[in-house]
Amino acid sequence: MQSNHNEYLLAELFFTHPQKVFSKYSLLDLIWNRNTDLESNCVEATISSLRKKLKNSGANFSIKSRRNIGYCSETIPHF
To answer: Based on the structure, what is the number of domains in the chain?
Structure first.
């Protein structure tokens, strides 16, 4: 799976903190160091791209949105 630096950092963060919910602002602090406009959609765009790559690779791992809270990882059961 090819990923850019921020996608890699996000994946690593979610892998190492399973089911922990991260707000958009905490992700900006941790990944982008707030070096971007807070109104930017960089978090949403990067998570969207990472979700597609995870799905296309057949990973048993996904990133879920928690409305008005943030994002967390979730293991997808295989039957």
So the answer is: 1
